[in-house]
């Protein structure tokens, strides 16, 4: 089971983020939960790509590097775009939170529901 | 105290920012231009350039960074990056397909001028990402000032 | 790979602190710990491109989150939790860990031995096909440039969304119109 241990720890990190989204009242804490879950997913993809004893996927002019010894470059490319999208969506969530604070005067999700209408 | 020191943070922060902000900007340009040779690329370099402007804004207050890069021009630069990226993709249609690397055998691998349209695409992406992030940052800050004036 | 486990433990501890601490500013700083630890892990896993992007994006995210929390008086209060949501969260956590064990031991290849049936094409052909020595860049901007186009679209949409949510000009114009009508 030791060979799957990093995946399991990564799942625990994801579950912490989901727990924050489901259970917290404060909207900033919910945003932090989204951010943590997103980090866990990115980490999982890069963990899958790792090859034991592998090299980074970059060729060099002065050194002969065999393509067989490289780690998998495809998940790296996908994660690279996913990180920037994550920042943009986090900024959007922050903008929504600031607007909600301006309208209701609180970050508490349950009190927002009471004040509606 | 001159008028410049009235807004923003203390003199220590401003002096250090004056020394380092150009270096951060140059590092971002380096990361973008060498994206096809070394780690980095348009995403990381664009965010670094946006961070250099954020540094200016946080240290000196909004009026100085608005002189360098205003909120209206962030939209223009972002749209320019998007149009440049799409134009590179569409020019490829003439040579073989969408996103065809039509400049490809243009230099030895490992040189700065190589890899066809990939460096140009890196520049387009960096314009888009950097201007977009700095626009978001400016928007969040301007609204905060608007709220504090209302109170 | 003992340092990987140490950093993962640090990230889990940082995540728990970020979620359970009362002060919102401390929570944001704890999320910064998680992101920077993630950046170092990317470097250990031989992904330098992703590590550079992660560290830079983390700094920008922490700046934006601190901007959202710093000047508000509520930074020190209202951190309760919903009991029903907490119960559902714990049930979900248990089910997810069980499913993860089952899936990882049956379907996924072990850590350190990736399945490279398709993606071994990219390192083999990157130099002759695109001329870029950085294989990740050649995948992003040549082989899979459609993904990057989609990413640019999503980023554009997010920026437009932020500008729309945060705008203050439209309301003023409506008020002026109402005043003129009256």
Commentary on this structure:
The complex is a heterotrimer of chains A (117), B (151) and C (182). Chain A has helices spanning 5-23, 27-49, 73-104, 109-115. Chain A has 4 helices and no strands. Helix content of chain A is 69%, strand content 0%. Chain B has one domain. Chain B has 5 helices and no strands. In chain B, α1 runs antiparallel to α2 (42-60). Chain B is elongated. With 182 residues, chain C is mainly alpha-helical. Chain C folds into 2 domains: 1-77; 122-182. Chain C contains 8 helices and no strands. Chain C has helices at residues 2-20, 24-44, 48-69, 83-106, 121-130, 135-143, 145-166, 169-181. The termini of chain C are far apart. The interface between A and C is large, with 83 and 89 residues.
Helix content of chain C: over 70%
> How large is the count of helical segments of chain C?
8
SSE order of chain A? HHHH
User: Can you give the mean pLDDT of chain A?
Assistant: 83
In a few lines, what is going on in this structure?
The complex is a heterotrimer of chains A (117), B (151) and C (182). Chain A is mainly alpha-helical and 117 residues long. Chain A has helices spanning 5-23, 27-49, 73-104, 109-115.
Short key terms for the protein model shown above:
heterotrimer; A: 117 residues; mainly alpha; Helix Hairpins; 4 helices; C: 182 residues; 2 domains; 8 helices; extended
Topology:
The complex is a heterotrimer of chains A (117), B (151) and C (182).
Chain A: H1 5-23, H2 27-49, H3 73-104, H4 109-115
Chain B: H1 11-33, H2 42-60, H3 62-68, H4 71-95, H5 118-150
Helix pairs in contact in B: 1-2, 2-3, 2-5, 4-5
Chain C: H1 2-20, H2 24-44, H3 48-69, H4 83-106, H5 121-130, H6 135-143, H7 145-166, H8 169-181
């Amino acid at each position: 089971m030791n060979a799957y241990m990093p995946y399991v720890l990564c799942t625990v990190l994801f579950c912490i983020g989901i727990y924050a989204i489901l259970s917290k009242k404060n909207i900033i804490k919910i945003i932090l939960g989204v951010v943590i879950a997103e980090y866990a997913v990115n980490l999982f993809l890069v963990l899958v790509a790792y090859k034991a004893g592998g090299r980074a996927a970059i060729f060099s002019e002065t050194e002969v590097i065999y393509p067989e010894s490289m780690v998998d470059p495809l998940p790296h490319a996908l994660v690279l775009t996913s990180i920037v999208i994550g920042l943009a969506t986090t900024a959007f969530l922050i903008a929504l939170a600031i607007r909600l604070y301006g309208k209701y005067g609180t970050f508490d999700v349950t009190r927002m529901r009471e004040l509606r209408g | 105290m001159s008028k410049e020191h009235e807004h923003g943070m203390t003199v220590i922060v401003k002096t250090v920012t004056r020394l380092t902000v150009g270096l951060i900007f140059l590092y971002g340009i380096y990361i973008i231009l060498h994206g096809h040779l070394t780690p980095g690329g348009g995403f990381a370099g664009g965010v670094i350039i946006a961070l250099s402007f954020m540094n200016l804004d946080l240290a000196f207050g909004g009026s100085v960074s608005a002189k360098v890069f205003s909120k209206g021009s962030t939209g223009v630069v972002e749209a320019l990056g998007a149009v440049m990226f799409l134009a590179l993709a569409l020019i490829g249609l003439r040579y073989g397909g969408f996103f065809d690397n039509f400049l490809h055998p243009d230099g030895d691998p490992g040189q700065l001028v190589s890899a066809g349209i990939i460096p140009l695409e890196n520049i387009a992406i960096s314009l888009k990402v950097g201007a977009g992030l700095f626009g978001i940052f400016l928007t969040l800050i301007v609204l905060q000032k608007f709220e504090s004036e209302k109170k | 790979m003992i340092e990987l486990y140490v950093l993962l433990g640090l990230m889990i501890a940082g995540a728990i602190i970020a979620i359970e601490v009362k002060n919102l500013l401390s929570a944001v700083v704890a999320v910064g710990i998680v992101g920077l630890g993630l950046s170092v892990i990317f470097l250990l896993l031989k992904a330098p491109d992703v590590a550079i992007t992660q560290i830079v994006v983390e700094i920008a995210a922490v700046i934006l989150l601190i901007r959202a929390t710093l000047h508000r008086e509520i930074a020190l209060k209202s951190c309760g939790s919903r009991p029903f949501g907490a119960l559902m969260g714990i049930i979900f956590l248990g089910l997810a860990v069980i499913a993860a064990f089952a899936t990882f031991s049956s379907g996924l290849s072990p850590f350190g031995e990736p399945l490279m049936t398709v993606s071994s094409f990219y390192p083999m052909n990157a130099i002759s096909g695109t001329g870029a020595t950085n294989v990740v860049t050649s995948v992003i901007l040549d082989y899979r440039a459609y993904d990057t186009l989609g990413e640019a679209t999503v980023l554009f949409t997010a920026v437009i969304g932020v500008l729309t949510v945060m705008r203050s000009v439209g309301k003023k114009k409506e008020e002026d119109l109402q005043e003129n009508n009256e």
